User: Fold these one by one.
Assistant:
Number 1:
Amino acid sequence: MATKQKHKISVFTIINVFILSLFGVITLLPVLHVVAKAFSGEGPVVAGLVTFWPKQFQTDTIKYVLKKPEFLSSFKVSLFVTIVGTAIAMFLTVTVAYPLSKPELKGRKFFLYIFVFIMLFNAGMVPNYLLYRSLNLTNTIWALIFPGAFSVFNMLVVKNYFESLPETVEEAARIDGASNMQTLYKVVIPMSLPVLATVTLFYAVGFWNNYMSGVLYITDPSLKPLQQYLYDLINEALETIDATGNIADIDSAMNLTGESVRAATIVVSTVPILLVYPSLQKYFVKGITIGSVKG
Amino acid sequence: MGKTIYGSDIKQIEQGVVSKKSSPFMRYFKKNYDMYLLLIPTLVFIIIFNIIPMYGITLAFKDYNMFAAETPWKSISASEWVGFKHFKNVFGRSDFKNALANTLIISAYKILFLFPLPIIFAIFLNEVNSIKFQKGLQLIVYLPHFLSWAVVAGIFVALLSSTGVVNMMLAKLGFEKVKFMMDNSVFRKVLVFSEGWKEIGWSSIIYFAAIAGLDQECYEAAHIDGANRFQQIWYITIPGLMPTIILMLILRVGSIMDAGFSQIFAMYNPTVYESADIIGTYVYRMGLGKMDFSMGTAVGLFNSLIGLILVLSSNKLAKKATGKSIW
């Protein structure tokens, strides 16, 4: 992109592309290893023969995981939390980012101080836990939604983007008699789709990937989100490692080792992210660079 | 929308009559009351979930009795004040000192080994002329950022277990198998490596964008003057990136008190507490695991206060050094 020089492929380019590709390969190999384990037969997995390609290819482990009731219920919980949580989060973010993007708003500095303060200083794990318990939010779906339903950082990204929009379009809408709310809804939001797509992606991934809220607030198995379910599987494994570093647990239901079941669970729980991620790439690169650093 | 100016208004302005009703704020508020309506839902939300919990910080200075009142929250005010007892107690504990030391050591390792890599990656990716290669590689290296730490922990457990591919290769090469997840002398390396694997690509975005914003004519001029690629990187790209690098470094150092809680919480186990227990995980185990709520709050408060001071001062420093800041 930088240099528009048209020259033949140099030694530098070859070495450079080689090293960069190597970096890409290193990024992919761990993922491939897990995918290979998920699709390999039991024997090769236990014997430690699986590298980056399935051995004795089979799909039974994946099917077994997909049919497990605990997995299904966790998947549904995560799906619900992600969709409802992201909708709430976008509402809370956009409604507050718009007024704060107006320099003439009276009290703007005061509000911004509050938001920056809560971004930098958190009461901590224990007070939050006691509050959730006292509000009877523990072991409810809201304990998974509220902790991720507003991020000051994302709000500032949207606010900075709103500030960069040309004032004239909004002025025109106001002269036509639109209220501030109508201007936001009909003019500002349609002009801000790239940054809104980015922030939606951040919130959605945040909800989908959050395992901590589950660990803190959920003990009811039917309300465990997928990542907590996965966390429990891995944590069990880490605690049953024997002296040789072997993970020695056996999933008795199908005579599958915990190892292949875990690999399969990792694979299925990551597929939703893989599905939406490539189509959003063009948005998030633009969104994060426009909104995140203030000159 | 009140844009028309009536004769009476002009008279009022001329006479300098400012009644209470038409103070600048009231006039602004009348015209833009819906702006304040828009603020309400989020303000209510943060008051409940961010501001009110701050009252719970008083627990650090009290002996908490969970059953002193009807709800755990009301019990906070019903519990007795004990001053700095919990702080004095905790600062004398060796497991706390261990967690504090680990926090600083792990953060320092991560900065030392992981901070330069996204910069180098962005610079060299920028040197590739094929946009297709750039986009494709970016798609791959940004991906791990979108995986949860639970998934990444699972991936590394699979990779590093005794049946994992790493130990398999070590065995083939004639080395002994390594218990990566249980060995205090290697577990920190696992932490640094997995963090790098997950975030190097993503962190490079900001540098990549900064390079794209540099003056392209400089490169053309340098090329005409016979500068080779390395000279162009050394004399144009790196100086051009310096403000961004300094800003990011200062901010990174400012967040040194967070050594990666969600990562370590997902990956550690009792055998590696000695090398990987950090303040965040310590707070969880003491405060919620052992139900010592007051001590957990005290340690958490200590951590957030130091973190706050560091972030504020580093942001100030960044503003001074580069004229930029994150808020």
Number 2:
Amino acid sequence: MAEFLNERRMSLAIALALLAVPLMAEWLGNSFYTTLATRAAILALAGVGLNIALGSGGLISLGHAAFFGIGGYAVGIIASHHQAYEPLMTWPLTIAATNQMPVLWLVAILASGLAALMIGALSLRTSGVYFIMITLAFAQMIYYFAVSWPAYGGQDGLSIYVRDGFPGLNTLRPLDFFLLCYAVLMVVLALVRMISGARFGAMLEAVRQNPARVAALGLSPFRIRLVAFVLSGMVTGLAGALYADLNRFVSPSMLSWHMSGEIMVFVILGGAGRLFGPVAGACIYVLFEHVFGGVSDYWQFFLGALLLGVVLFARGGLIGLAAGRARHD
Amino acid sequence: MTFALFTEQILNGLQLGVMLFLMAAGLTLIFGVMGLINLAHGSLFMVGGFVCAAVAVWSGSFWLGLAASLVASAAAGALVEIAVIRRLYDRDHLDQVLATFALVLMFSEATRFVFGSSPLYLNPPAMLSGPVMLPGGIAYPAYRLAIIVAGLLVAGGLGLLINRTRLGVRIRAGEADREMISALGIDIRTLYTIVFALGAALAGFAGALVGAIQSVEVGMGEPVLILAFVVIVIGGIGSIRGALIASVIVGVVDTMGRFLLPDLLSGMMDAASARGTGAAIASMLIYVLMALVLIVKPRGLFPAHG
Amino acid sequence: MTEPVLSLSGVTRSFGALKVSDAVDLDLRAGEIHALIGPNGAGKSTLIKLISGEIEPDAGRIRFAGRDLQGLDQAARARLGLARTFQVSSLIPDFSVRRNVMLAVQAREGSGFGFVRQVSGDSRLGDAAMTALGRVGLQDRAQVPAAELSHGERRLLEIAMALALRPRAFLMDEPMAGLGSEGSGALIGFLDSLRGEAPILLVEHDMDAVFALADRISVLVGGRVIAHGSPDDIRADADVRAAYLGEE
């Protein structure tokens, strides 16, 4: 139990540190670090999404960029209509575009959830290495679709000229936008924690450890995994929506397989299956990118070396190194 | 549309299929024998392309470049196997994915460091630079035809290697039962290194051949890698024959889709949107094919085991 | 006569050229223990897999609780009330003993999909689990991770999970395997009392247990039922003695 308490204390420290950096930065009048922290919070959210499938469900999805990108494009497409004063559609009914984040998020969550439902229903018919290759392939399909579909920017992507709004906040101010993203991250973490302690979480954990046993008890492992995969896609899609507004730009690169790999890296660097693992991982990633990216153009070489080192020698991720072995490893 | 154009596109599809086979054969062999999923296979393809281009430019001989690319990619494969990959055989697929993804990052950055970010260009050898006349009066680039022939020869050679040689017996034994192969007194570590280097050489060979058609650039192997995964899913994992058939199917469907769909759609909409929509749908075609295969035969068309 | 709880007719399954189940007819009636015996490789475990839905028969019908099971997957058959214990204990290793049984209770209630209410504070799940554990005598081990149980305790936990499902029939694949004589004695007593709750199809190698418990016995050799009857009939059957009991 001491280990567990230790992990909780670490989680709290990570949460506070992520909050403290932008507050300090704003106090010092340098909002660059606020933006950096916002990026970390959003990437962490993408990782939290993947962690539902990967850490809790044992589903090695190498296609989560699909959901990240779909969330981003949902925002980008609606924004492109809104800034051109065009309705989203006129038939069979007229739907006006909006620039209100709560609505945009909802659309992003639904769209990425629907994509996860379809991809999951197909790829969960298989397992193991097939599942990895198939999730990767379907994500690549959506990537190529975005590249070759000319209506929304194709290869060049879409710009969002003015960041979308949120009632009661000035999202153009970096600190406001950070706090919004941070709040979303914390709310989602609380929800994930709740779900993993509830009946569904117990079943998902059981399916990961022993699917045959769960089937013998009368519950379908396929359905449990599919629900987990959809929830996972939705959270990553929400992160994509925030990411689009952070950069005020979406492009096919959000859908590329490198993105899928990077989201997985956030989860693994921190420690798979731990609530705050992806948060720690994303913070390390952003920090690493900032520090080494400033020193060398080839910083991803060192990222690769770090990742290789973690995989070969520190399997519990960095929280694992600090807080001991995960409860289920 | 003319018959000649149609035939040309079919041949282009075949040529893409042959390329995919060279990638997929190595991947599926490595998975079948060692149980390893290797994302860095695309990097070995890239190594082949760069070495061939660089040596060809330096020496003025495409053939020297091709030979060098085979040696370099096999050596890179063996080196990576000894340094990293062999630590991964006992690990789960997640660790394999992560470690080989890390290798992709390192390979790409190292290549960018050595060769820079701008693409290299490689000319096909002089003797293959023109078109050849096929029966029916169809002119087709000799180099592309040579790729098809070379690919089919390699496929045949691989079949002979696996079915007729001592190495092949060992590889098949390794696929069937890993315990048995050690019981036979075969040095399993060496066998694994050889199989990995063989797969790497096939990938490097493909990269070198393609280098004279496309530009040679960092990341060139990754789209091919993912297409090769689609091939493996369709063909059934661990099956060389399945990989060959699925490669040709994927190559032809992809090429013909891009060629035919815009024309088919132009009956329904104006030319510009037919081009756009056709291209977008064509880019998804093989993935739809993969989805259909998954629905009907989740273990692929030619499952190797059971 | 009422319909048997479980009935197999003409159930056949081959792996390649090998017929592992050959036109098997078998039934399980309310209130009985029906033992399935036979040498290794006779196809006993295959039959359990066919009934539980892990594999599908090539031919023949399996009926349970008044329905044809064809096309139903394992989970659906379990939901109909078919509780299986595995030959090699199949547990959730990182869960405590109590959490393993809570999972079964949760499954019986048909709810894998609660998202809000926390399992740890759910006394209904916990109490039902403790009741089942109490019946097999594992209540003192409730907080221990399943991975740390002894072999015999794992067998008991399997049975507790089956009990918690409150099934219409038990399929037990060698529950006595690896238990010491004291352990199997206790388990024989317990299974004896269980038949009133739901009938048991019992695959077992321990002949003392089989002859102590079974109301009827079927003998499986080479995928075929070669003999069938009361324990006394089977003891007396010359074919069985020759083919299986190995007596000259």
Number 3:
Amino acid sequence: MRGYLKYFKTELMVGLQYKAAAIAGICTQLFWGFLFCLLYEAFYSYANVDAITYREVITYVWLMQAFFSLIYIKIEDAEIIGKIKSGTVAYELCRPYNIYFWWFVRLLSRKYAHTLLKSFPVFVFAFMLPSAYRLSFPISFEALILFIITIILGSFIVVGISMLIHIISFFTLESKGIASIIASIGGVLSGMAVPVPLLPLVLINITKYLPFRLIGDTSFRIYSGNIGIIEAKQTIILQLIWVVILIGFGLLLLNKALKKVCLQGG
Amino acid sequence: MKLILNYLSIHLKVSLEYRLPFFFSLVSQVLYMFIELFAVYALFSKFNLLGVYSIDEILLSFSTVWFAFAFSEMFLRGFDNFARLIVNGSLDLLLVRPRNIYLQIFGSDICYEKLSRLLAALGLFIYSSGKLIKHFTIGKVLLLGNMLLGGIILFMGLFIIGATFCFYTIQGIEVVNVITDGGKQFAEYPMRIYKKSLRLVFTFVIPITIINYYPIDYLMGNTTNIMYIFLPLLTFIVLLLSINVFNFGLRKYHSTGS
């Protein structure tokens, strides 16, 4: 356990070094946040939607930008994929640690490093905007606590999914295609394109049975009060279940993959 | 010309080497586009705006922009990933060859994965314009052609401007995508939904309204001003401008290699 923690810290430090990239990222996030604000402003000037208010959508937009690196599903780690392709993964296997959790920690730490660098400036900026586009404060202290818990659990879910994508490349040796299919479907179902309450009813029903919605969407809505406290607590249980499922499935798949791995090494 | 064909065929062969992943990529690319379209449609239906904006108008706005965007993503990949050429020194290699530099950057990478998107967008464009236009005239058909052409030219210009930034930043191209992706994101909705001030920004700063907002006005018969037909061609100004900026950047370029 201590080994994993140490690795987490080292990787976090490495991630925090990329400050220039972070500044670029912050600008991008601010731009997109603003863009979505203008877009929803246009829509809400025509009509209101019962499922989610304009204020809640604006809050949603800014939280999503602040935590974008944390909730975004993609192949983050070209290095892991590269290792799988080139066969240097053999060295990784020599470590006295479980390779699944080792990579899990790596992906997680990268996500936190990016988020730590980006989220604070986005928050500051979003709190200072004119009131029409401003990020609201959390609805209550309890909601804030639940928001923090759910967003952390959400990050486990997203890394669990991304681990599965990485493991699949053991079998296919090219994960870009599958990864982007999962990423684009997951993106919509996790509310990256449009907040989940604004999706068509059919999709909303589908999201209930999948983990994607639990990555960011529910957390953001807990923050703004769109989801009540009781439902928020149920969310945590649901998240825990999904974390166990995803990690269990990942471990299983990885063990299967590792039986084949000797074929690739040279 | 022969060189272009050569580039095209080489990259096609490369793509086809990994057949299954390539197929997955084709699917995922077009899937992504339809998901976006679905999101656009979802918003309009949630806000009960489908009476005000017909589905064909939404489709046409969407497909015009996505066609242009996919075209640039496919053929201007070299400019899209220009930082890579600078960082690993390949640009120096290209510069010493006795061929046009634009041609070579074009040839450095062609992304066939976007082909599915390109064709799907074109299909949507033809379908929706066929349904939107009540009375076909020569002018309207001409305008449709100009919209496609203007879109391609505009995004070419934007991609080249984006690449120019890399001369100064070497890295951090994420910001640059804001112009292209951001423009696309705004313009995939029928642009009359926005406030006038915002539309003006997208007319005079990033002139994206001239490839779908104004032309669609004409196609729907809201105006008969003949000038509208040729409006999309003004995007050539953007391309010209971007080429000049790029050339300027190129002259000041210092290699990152040793």
